[in-house]
Amino acid sequence: QVRLVESGGGLVQAGESLRLSCAASGRSFSNYNMAWFSQAPGKEREFVAAISRNGGATYYADSVKGRFTIARDSAKNTVYLQMNRLQSKDTAVYYCARDAVPLRMGLATTSNAYDGWGQGTQVTVSS
């Protein structure tokens, strides 16, 4: 069973940046695609970004394309989300997730494709 621990959230002004980190325990980290999701109060959990096992492929929600960057460091078992030009609409709890299927071809964007979730980290953007 994987354990994911997110960090790096906080309160920032619109236009500023944050970098979220997600540390994964367990072996075989490099066998799994990883993703970030967000959940604002009263809303469904939404896909933000995903990265392939080797980091060679990434995919983003339209709302963050060009502003957010997902990356991974397999030596550290860590996934990152660099968030630039933050907007008030980005305010949410951000969750790291591990794909339910090892060695999956292609990047999934629905939450039911992921079975390992962290506890989340709060990002609040004031305008």
Give the DSSP E fraction (strand runs of 2 or more residues). Answer: over 45%
- Straight-line distance between termini: 39 Å
Order of helices and strands: EEEEEEEEEEE
Rg over CA atoms? 13 Å
Low-confidence stretches: none
Percent in helix: under 10%
Mean pLDDT, to the nearest integer, reads 96
Shape: globular
Give the structural class. Answer: mainly beta
What is the count of helical runs?
0
Largest sheet: 7 strands, mixed
**Beta strands, count:** 11
In brief:
This protein has strands at 4-7, 10-13, 18-24, 34-39, 46-51, 58-60, 68-73, 78-83, 92-99, 114-117, 121-126. With 127 residues, the chain is mostly beta strands.
Q: Can you give a write-up of this model?
A:
The strands form two sheets. Strands 2, 4, 5, 6, 9, 10 and 11 form a seven-stranded mixed sheet that branches. Strands 1-3-8-7 form a four-stranded antiparallel sheet, with no helix packed on it. By secondary structure, the protein is mostly beta strands. The protein contains no helices and eleven strands. Helix content is 0%, strand content 47%.
Topology (SSEs and partners):
Elements: E1 4-7, E2 10-13, E3 18-24, E4 34-39, E5 46-51, E6 58-60, E7 68-73, E8 78-83, E9 92-99, E10 114-117, E11 121-126
Parallel strand pairs: 2-11
Antiparallel strand pairs: 1-3, 3-8, 4-5, 4-9, 5-6, 7-8, 9-10, 9-11
